[in-house]
Amino acid sequence: MRTLKQSLLVLVMVLLFVATMASQRGRQEERPEPLDSIHHDTRARLEKERRDGEWKKLKEDADKLVQAANGLREMIEKSNKDTFSLSIIKKTEDVEKILKDIKRRAKDGF
Predict the structure, then answer these.
(1) What is the DSSP track for 16-75?
(2) pTM tops 0.70
(3) How many other CB atoms sit within 10 Å of the CB of residue 98?
(4) For 1-27, how does the pLDDT look when each residue is reduced to its tens digit (9 = 90+)?
(5) How many CB atoms sit inside 10 A of residue 75's CB?
(6) Of 64, 52, 53, which Cα lies nearest the Cα of 99?
(7) Domain ranges of the chain
(8) How do residues 73-106 score in pLDDT, each as one tens digit?
(9) Residue 74 and residue 48: Cα distance in Å, rounded?
(10) Rounded CA gap, 88 and 68, in Å?
(11) Which of 16, 32, 60, 72 has the CB geometry, 3.0–4.6 Å to 36, for a possible disulfide?
């Protein structure tokens, strides 16, 4: 008899614990997320500003790429097959770095 009472007591305690956890989870879900407290127009404006900034940076990087590629072309035109220099290799690496950054930004979505 005593074991049955102890088992029932444990069962009641477990059920109370589960009910308490479920009610706490329900209260947590009712709380609005911080982003929900920001007005929709404000979020849209912030997103537009972020995208505009990303687009501007992408355009600036494209301009850098053009300048670096033109510099590389000039270096190659000034050299010949016998005087291929390390500066051309360095300039090629710079062009490649800028291009990879542009590609990454385009993939991530601006």
Answers:
(1) HHHHHHHHHHHHHHHSPPHHHHS-HHHHHHHHHHHHHHHHHHHHHHHHHHHHHHHHHHHH
(2) no
(3) 19
(4) 556 666 666 666 666 666 676 666 555
(5) 16
(6) 64
(7) 1-35, 44-110
(8) 998 888 877 777 888 889 999 999 999 988 888 8
(9) 39
(10) 11
(11) 32
Cα separation, 96 vs 98, in Å, equals 6
Cα Dmax for the chain: 102
For residues 50 and 77, the answer to whether their CB atoms sit within 8 Å is: no
How many angstroms separate the CA atoms of 98 and 64, rounded?
7
Q: What is the token pair recorded at 110? A: 């601006």
Per-residue pLDDT reduced to its tens digit, 18-54: 667 666 655 555 555 555 666 788 888 888 998 899 8
Task: Report pLDDT for 95.
Answer: 92
Which tokens is 106 given? 């385009």
Is residue 68 within 8 A of residue 95, CB to CB? The reply is yes
